[in-house]
Design a protein that fits this description.
The chain is an alpha+beta fold. It has three domains: 106 residues, Aminopeptidase (3-Layer(aba) Sandwich); 160 residues, Gcn5-related N-acetyltransferase (GNAT) (Aminopeptidase); 93 residues, SCP2 sterol-binding domain (Nonspecific Lipid-transfer Protein, Chain A, 2-Layer Sandwich), CATH 3.30.1050. The protein is built from eleven helices and 19 strands. Strands 1-2-3-4-5-14-6 form a seven-stranded mixed sheet. A seven-stranded mixed sheet has the order 8-9-10-11-12-7-13, sandwiched between helices. A hairpin with a 2-residue loop joins strand 2 and strand 3. It is globular and about 65 Å long. The protein starts with a strand and ends in a 12-residue tail after the last helix. The relative contact order is 0.14. Bound molecules: acetyl coenzyme *A. The site of acetyl coenzyme *A has 23 residues, from strand 4 and helix 3.
Length: 407
C-alpha cells in the first residue's frame, strides 16, 4: 500500500477513470452513455489511487445538497467507486475514503452519502442505512380499491421537457418535508429523470409526467412513469416518482396509474416506507410490498456538525459515547443537549448514558431508525434507563426519510 498515492484525477484523466470503472462494473457502454458519464465526472470531486502513473482506484463525489430534518446540508455523494481487480483488498478503498473524509471536513460538509452496490462494504467505514425504500406492486387488472375518495380535480399530461419548470418548486417543498432528498438542478432533472430512453430497459416508453391541478393552479401532486407492453405478460406501468399534497391527491394519481388501458401491473421502486397508499388501499392483496432495501447510506463525517445542523422534535439532555474507529475526532463522550430551539454537542468527562457506533448513529440521524431498535438488536448499550426513549422522541420526524435519486 505504501506504493499507492491518493491525489485528484485531472479532467484529462476522466477517460482513464471511466475505463477502470467499466472494467470493475463489467460494462461496455455506447458512446452516448460514455459522454454522459464523462459529463457527470467532470462535475464531481475525483480522488484517484495511483501506483506510479497507473490509476488503480477511483472515488468520485457529486457536490449535492441533501435535506435533513429542519434544513439541508452540503453532502459529497459518492459514486463510481472502483478498485482495479489486481489491487483489491489491499486498502485502496480505505485510503481513498480517508482522503475523501479529510476533504469533506476541510470543506465543512458534516455528512457524506452513497448508494451501495453491496451492503457488506460500507458499514466498516461508518456509513449506516439512513433511508429505506419499498418496491410496491399494484395488480391493476381490476379497478384499484380505495377507502378514501380521490381528489376529482383534473389530471393533465405535461411535456416532460416542461417538467423541471412545472415541478421543480413543488419537489423542493417535498424535500423540506422529508429528510434524505437530493436537491435537483435542471440538468439532473433532464438527464436522470426525464431522459428519453431508460438506462436499464430500452423497451420502456419515454417518461410520462401527469400532474393534478389545472395549468393556472399550483401543482397539487404529480407522477412520473413509463410503460411497457409485451405479448406474454400484462402491460407494465413503472412508476418512478409520485408526490401528493393530500391523501386524496395521492389516491387520484394511483387510481390513474392503475387504470391505464392495456396495462395490468403498476410497479413502483423506491417508495417511502410510510406511503399512505398502504392504509388507504382497500385490498392489501391488490397492493403489495414486494421488497425493502437500504437506499441512502449516510456517514456522519463530523458528528457534532451533523447533529447541530438538524432540528429536534423534543428536549433531550444525554451523554453519548460514540465509537468511531476511522475518524478519531468523533470518538468518545459528548453531551447532547437538544430541543426544538437548537442543539449543542460538547465533549464531556461525564459518564455515558448510551454507547453506540457512529454507523448506527448515522442510521438514526434522519429519523429512519430508532435507537430503541438498536438496543433490541444488541447494537447499542443503554447505561441510563430511558435514554433511548428520550433520544428517539427528540430525533422523531413526522414523515420517514426517503431517497429516490440513485447516483
Ligand atoms: C458508492 C458506490 O459506487 S458503490 C460501488 C462499489 N464498487 C464496486 O462494487 C465495484 C467492484 N468492487 C471494487 O471495486 C472493490 O472491490 C471495492 C471498491 C468494493 C473495495 O475496494 P478494496 O480496495 O478492495 O477495499 P479495501 O481493501 O480498502 O477493503 C477494506 C475492507 O473492506 C472489506 N471489503 C471490501 N470490499 C468488500 C466487499 N465487496 N464485501 C465485503 N467486504 C469488503 C475488505 O475485506 C476490507 O476488510 P478489512 O478492513 O477487515 O480487511
Amino acid at each position: 500500500m505504501e506504493s499507492v498515492q491518493f491525489r485528484d484525477i485531472p479532467e484529462a484523466g476522466i477517460d482513464r477513470a471511466l475505463s477502470l470503472s467499466y472494467l470493475v462494473f463489467h460494462e461496455n457502454p455506447e458512446d452516448e452513455k460514455r459522454k454522459h458519464h464523462h459529463d457527470l465526472l467532470r462535475g464531481c470531486t475525483r480522488i484517484g489511487a495511483y501506483e506510479g502513473e497507473e490509476l488503480v482506484g477511483l472515488v468520485a463525489a457529486f457536490p449535492f445538497t441533501v435535506s435533513v430534518p429542519g434544513g439541508e446540508l452540503p453532502c459529497p455523494c459518492l459514486t463510481f467507486v472502483s478498485v482495479a481487480p489486481t489491487h483489491r483488498r489491499r486498502g485502496v478503498l480505505s485510503g481513498m475514503l480517508a482522503e475523501l473524509f479529510a476533504r469533506a471536513t476541510a470543506d465543512g460538509a458534516p455528512i457524506a452519502a452513497l448508494w451501495a452496490s453491496e451492503d457488506a462494504i460500507y458499514g466498516r467505514f461508518g456509513f449506516g442505512p439512513a433511508t429505506l425504500g419499498h418496491t410496491v406492486e399494484v395488480d391493476s387488472r381490476r379497478p384499484l380499491a380505495l377507502r378514501i375518495t380521490p381528489d376529482d380535480r383534473p389530471l393533465r399530461l405535461i411535456d416532460p421537457s416542461d417538467a423541471p419548470g412545472v415541478l421543480g418548486e413543488y419537489y423542493d417543498r417535498t424535500r423540506a418535508e422529508r429528510a434524505g432528498r437530493i436537491a435537483r438542478g435542471e440538468a439532473w432533472w433532464r438527464e436522470e429523470w426525464l431522459v428519453e430512453e431508460d438506462e436499464e430497459d430500452d423497451e420502456l416508453s419515454p417518461p410520462r409526467v401527469v400532474v393534478l391541478g389545472a395549468p393556472d393552479e399550483p401543482v397539487a401532486g404529480y407522477a412520473i412513469y413509463r410503460t411497457r407492453t409485451r405479448d406474454d405478460a400484462p402491460g407494465l406501468v413503472r412508476l418512478d416518482e409520485l408526490e401528493a399534497d393530500t391523501p386524496a391527491v395521492a389516491a387520484a394519481l394511483w387510481r390513474y396509474l392503475a387504470s391505464i388501458d392495456l396495462t395490468g401491473l403498476v410497479r413502483a421502486w423506491g417508495r417511502p416506507v410510510d406511503d399512505p397508499l398502504h392504509l388507504f388501499s382497500a385490498d392489501r392483496d391488490q397492493v403489495r410490498v414486494t421488497g425493502e432495501f437500504p437506499a441512502l447510506w449516510v456517514r456522519l463525517v463530523d458528528v457534532r456538525g451533523a447533529l447541530e445542523a438538524r432540528s429536534w422534535a423534543a428536549p433531550v439532555d444525554v451523554v453519548l459515547d460514540v465509537r468511531d474507529g476511522r475518524l478519531p475526532a468523533n470518538e468518545g463522550r459528548h453531551r447532547l443537549t437538544a430541543s426544538p430551539e437548537g442543539c449543542t454537542y460538547e465533549r464531556t468527562e461525564d459518564p455515558a448514558d448510551l454507547t453506540l457506533d457512529v454507523r448506527d448513529l448515522a442510521a438514526c440521524y434522519l429519523g429512519g431508525t430508532k435507537t430503541a431498535a438498536l438496543l433490541r438488536a444488541g447494537l447499542a448499550t443503554e447505561h441510563t434507563p430511558g435514554t433511548a426513549a428520550a433520544l428517539d422522541a427528540a430525533l422523531h420526524t413526522a414523515l420517514l426519510p426517503h431517497t429516490v435519486d440513485e447516483f
